[in-house]
Design the sequence.
């Protein structure tokens, strides 16, 4: 699909996904939102809770430090525990230091005093933020995420991740949302491949995806047309229906 | 976690995951299986149905062509349609050509003649396999996957992917499966962080993960201990229970 939309990557930091213990929810949630606001998600990576792996992935993904895409959204590895090494890795990747952020500390202390929660050194670790970052509010549990360079660093717990995404989205520079149209065909992919290839060649500005499925023992195919111009998508859909005698 | 186990990556090829249309099933399925046979999954990537993106990802991931890990399992982008460009990209990445594979053709024709399915040029495209690859059988729909270098190239349709994984697993060189033990603590992560950090420092050969959750309005934490030696995992669990007065 031809587009001048901003590009993005998602970086999930989490041994629990790599071990098969947890099935990703956060990348799927954010992918749908980005698609809806015209930010072109081009890559997702999952790496271990490992300093070097996080630094390398950020460097490869964020244009601000020599990587490939305009923005990177990270999930996981921030919080109070020993294996929450993301903040330190981010500071390294962006060549800055890390210290207790007074505003983050204030947000967390305000919540803790309201809830009668004791302030401990472990809890205060969650206010350690790379110098120069701006905070991403967290209505769910107070400890904020943060943005630095082209990266937006968020928590892995799904409810907290969603709360941070909600705070962050209005601040992003959106693009033009794609129009998408799905045509269901109750024939196997191989029967419609030639027609599809011909229409795809006539509409190089669109993306035409073909997603085979199996239902009640038979094979079918969902054809998904995507593009930035609604009229073009409708034209391609008409051409496809014509070609496939639908 | 210290380990000499073979390492692996999963590469998902799929616009439909990046657009938020589909939530991944295949990486999650395979991650659990790899963990169970001692193959250390170190990275997952999702890239678009794009020739350059696929070649770049394979080159970065497969040690056989200069990448980082011992094996790469790919899912998606093989099949009869215009956007199924994986096989060509794989041939390029491994410096080989692509042609109709006689054995693949035979497997498919055998099934088609049994089912009375017509043999068309579109269908025969599914027998295009990089020269030098070995086939991965597909009990579900006949069109095979294939292995080349350290890569195992499989379909994206979950039922077909699973069938290929089943055929492939007995051929892999397994490692020593990790032992894992989960301790549920009904306290927020920040309250147990110090104890956890101390135990982690005493057991550098293990991986200690801390996974906060929210249930019935309260916060809790699952502590996951993983290692190759069961006795060490039990020792660390005892030390943790002691530290946290469980």
Sequence:
């Amino acid at each position: 699909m031809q587009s001048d939309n901003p590009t993005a990557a998602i970086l999930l930091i989490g041994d629990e996904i790599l071990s098969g213990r947890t099935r990703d929810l956060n990348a799927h949630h954010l992918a749908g939102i980005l698609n809806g606001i015209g930010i072109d998600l081009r890559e997702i990576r999952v790496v271990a809770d490992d300093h070097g792996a996080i630094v390398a992935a950020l460097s490869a993904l964020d244009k601000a430090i020599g990587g490939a895409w305009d923005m990177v959204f990270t999930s996981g590895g921030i919080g109070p525990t020993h294996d929450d090494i993301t903040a330190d890795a981010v500071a390294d990747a962006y060549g800055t230091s890390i210290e207790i952020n007074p505003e983050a500390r204030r947000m967390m202390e305000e919540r803790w005093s309201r809830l009668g929660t004791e302030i401990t050194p472990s809890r205060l670790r969650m206010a350690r933020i790379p110098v120069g970052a701006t905070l991403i509010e967290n209505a769910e549990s107070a400890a904020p995420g943060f943005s630095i360079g082209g990266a937006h660093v968020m928590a892995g717990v799904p409810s907290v991740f969603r709360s941070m995404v909600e705070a962050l989205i209005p601040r992003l520079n959106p693009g033009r949302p794609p129009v998408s149209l799905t045509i269901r065909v109750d024939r196997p992919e191989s029967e419609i491949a030639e027609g599809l290839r011909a229409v795809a060649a006539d509409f190089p500005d669109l993306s035409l995806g073909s997603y085979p499925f199996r239902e009640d023992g038979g094979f079918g195919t969902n054809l998904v047309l995507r593009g930035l111009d609604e009229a073009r998508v409708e034209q391609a859909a008409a051409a496809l229906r014509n070609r496939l005698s639908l």
User: Anything to note?
Assistant: Residues 7-171 of chain B form a domain with the Molybdenum Cofactor Biosythetic Enzyme; Chain A fold (CATH 3.40.980.10). The two ends of chain B are 24 Å apart (CA to CA). Chain B has a mean pLDDT of 92.
